[in-house]
Inverse folding.
């Protein structure tokens, strides 16, 4: 008998059937045996089924459509179809001034909006060759880590929901809600802040922020213990995730993966450590990486990265330098509101900045930082006017989605759900 | 589980200065030797290589195989129609489109960017998906939004816009609101 792996009987089953002494079983033709075992005719090789998952499917995190070629319940091939959330944000970016640009990019990766704002602001500042005051840099570091916290907490929630651990969903949202509340006290908005702007940040930290930040850290840490107790050693959780959707370092690198997916394969690459930006070279933290490259490892990495983020946030509270939170160049940052009533120059600067923005010398640059999902990059080309010629965001989810090609084929449909969840795509950033 | 946490000092043993990309460095020297027509530019401290379209694939192969650039992170296009001031790089003949690819070398911890000029009447560039399969989505996006054809791409279809979309929306002369609508009674689409 020829060996059959994906379609037909597995070799062990065939052997068991061959050994049966029952005359009837021996007389059955091959197809009939399969009917006995599987309860129906096993599809022939050319009778596979194409199934669409999404675009409206709770496990696809928005409007991702996944076309799967199925053989029974085994996925043979997979193809992500995207574009359902395409709103032309890069085109919009060409119509907005550099001052307004932050409102656009912050809506791309809406689970970690402050990372997007940071990468855009850093790109503009590189074109302008600006040097920021230390407090602005440290505030950005703090807020980027708050963003990472928020994103990873929501991953824990949605990942739990996709696997079927519904209480985990409630736990994850519970802590994330507190993070959003904290962000509201600092930036004034729960999401889409436009708080980190070219030239610094929009406002100073509010009164009593130190204690509020430390309280938030304690709260999230307490929540994390819940997650670990609930999931990390849970036999059902392990059964669903360990060994599911494995990917090797070579595959991940070839398919353009970055972030937790790349780190789960034993490749410790984190831009915060490798090419430090902001104040990351001054804070102490570890790069989390694991060896197996499966869904469980990706869960574990994001869980432990929450802990590392808390470490960084506490150091930021401790070492936050005094001083200005933005550069005092009236051509780049607006004057304080109170000055507008007394000074004609302040009024003019304010008016010019918010109507025309500032001009950026002709040039082009690419800035990359580590967002919760991997390398987020901003390619900015300027023609010397107040609006960019091209504002391109390299979304980590966009490229990470390609790793499905390596992870999904050969697994079950239910595993495919777990794998999509472990990629943690944000469709706002994929489709832009 | 705690053994997943490895002290950071052990991971990056040989930190090179980030973005240490000056015109004199070794990658640039090696490229210059191999591709005499390539033009180098120091763009705010980042190494940029302007290559001819014919050398686009060769340069990517050289970077991957000989210079250990492990990932091509991003491919994108810039449409320079109607630029007020255009960055003038000596030795580069400007065309309407610029195709930009960003490469990252993990072992050497450095980046390099290659740019090639593409005219409107023949908007084709060799695809580098055979070298870097992960850039497939990026090239499809560039094709979709700018109409740049990547020769040799296995599946160059629209990725963000609908399959039946006419035009390439990120081109500067493509008006975003020009959508044909057949209003009642007018007979023809606007």
């Amino acid at each position: 008998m020829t060996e059959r792996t994906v379609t037909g009987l597995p070799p062990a089953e065939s052997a068991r059937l061959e050994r049966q002494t029952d005359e009837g079983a021996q007389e059955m033709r091959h197809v009939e045996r399969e009917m006995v075992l599987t309860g129906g005719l096993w599809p022939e090789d050319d009778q596979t089924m194409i199934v669409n998952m999404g675009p409206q499917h709770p496990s696809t995190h928005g409007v991702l459509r996944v076309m799967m070629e199925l053989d029974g319940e085994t996925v043979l091939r997979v193809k992500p179809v995207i574009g359902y959330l395409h709103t032309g944000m890069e085109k919009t970016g060409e119509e907005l001034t550099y001052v307004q640009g932050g409102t656009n990019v912050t809506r791309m990766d809406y689970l970690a909006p402050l990372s997007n704002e940071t990468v855009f602001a850093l790109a503009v500042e590189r074109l302008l060759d600006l040097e920021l005051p230390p407090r602005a840099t440290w505030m950005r570091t703090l807020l980027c880590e708050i963003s990472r916290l928020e994103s990873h907490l929501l991953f824990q929630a949605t990942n739990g929901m996709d696997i079927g651990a519904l209480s985990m969903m409630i736990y994850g949202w519970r802590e994330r809600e507190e993070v959003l509340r904290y962000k509201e006290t600092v930036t004034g908005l729960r999401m889409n802040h436009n708080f980190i702007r070219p030239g610094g940040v929009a406002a100073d930290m509010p009164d009593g922020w130190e204690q509020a930040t430390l309280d938030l850290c304690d709260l999230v840490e307490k929540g994390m213990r819940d997650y670990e107790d609930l999931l990390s050693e849970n036999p059902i959780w392990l059964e669903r995730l360990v060994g599911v959707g494995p990917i090797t370092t070579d595959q991940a690198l070839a398919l353009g993966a970055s972030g937790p997916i790349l780190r789960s394969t034993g490749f410790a690459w984190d831009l915060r450590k490798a090419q430090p930006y902001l104040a990351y070279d001054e804070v102490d933290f570890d790069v989390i990486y694991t060896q197996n490259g499966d869904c469980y490892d990706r869960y574990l990495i994001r869980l432990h990265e929450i802990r590392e983020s808390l470490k960084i946030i506490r150091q930021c509270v401790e070492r936050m330098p005094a001083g200005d939170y933005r550069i005092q160049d009236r051509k780049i940052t607006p004057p304080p509101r109170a000055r507008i009533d007394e000074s004609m120059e302040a009024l003019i600067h304010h008016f010019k900045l918010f109507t025309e923005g500032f001009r950026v010398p002709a040039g082009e640059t690419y800035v990359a930082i580590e967002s919760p999902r991997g390398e987020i990059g901003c390619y900015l080309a300027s023609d010397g006017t107040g609006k960019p010629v091209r504002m391109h965001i390299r979304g980590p989810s966009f490229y990470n989605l390609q790793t499905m090609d390596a992870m999904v084929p050969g697994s079950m449909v239910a595993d495919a759900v777990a794998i999509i969840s472990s990629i943690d795509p944000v469709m706002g950033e994929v489709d832009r | 589980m705690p053994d997943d946490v490895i002290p950071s000092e052990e991971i990056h043993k040989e930190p090179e200065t980030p973005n240490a990309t000056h015109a004199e460095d070794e990658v640039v020297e090696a490229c210059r030797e191999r591709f005499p027509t390539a033009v180098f530019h120091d763009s705010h401290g980042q190494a940029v290589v302007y290559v001819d379209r014919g050398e686009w694939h060769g340069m990517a192969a050289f970077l991957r195989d000989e210079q250990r650039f492990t990932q091509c992170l991003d491919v994108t296009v810039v449409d320079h129609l109607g630029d007020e001031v255009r960055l003038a790089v000596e030795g580069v003949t400007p065309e309407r489109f610029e195709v930009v690819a960003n490469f990252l070398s993990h072992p050497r911890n450095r980046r390099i960017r290659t740019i090639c000029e593409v005219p409107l009447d023949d908007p084709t560039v060799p695809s580098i998906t055979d070298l870097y399969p992960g850039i497939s989505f990026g090239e499809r996006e560039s094709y979709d939004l700018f109409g740049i054809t990547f020769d040799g791409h296995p599946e160059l279809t629209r990725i963000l816009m609908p399959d039946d979309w006419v035009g390439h929306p990120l081109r500067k002369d493509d008006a975003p609101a020009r959508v044909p609508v057949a209003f009642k009674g007018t007979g023809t689409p606007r």
Q: What stands out?
A: The mean pLDDT of chain B is 80. Chain B touches chain A through 56 residues (CB under 8 Å). Chain B is about 20% helix and 25% strand. The helical segments of chain B are 8-11, 26-34, 56-65, 136-146.
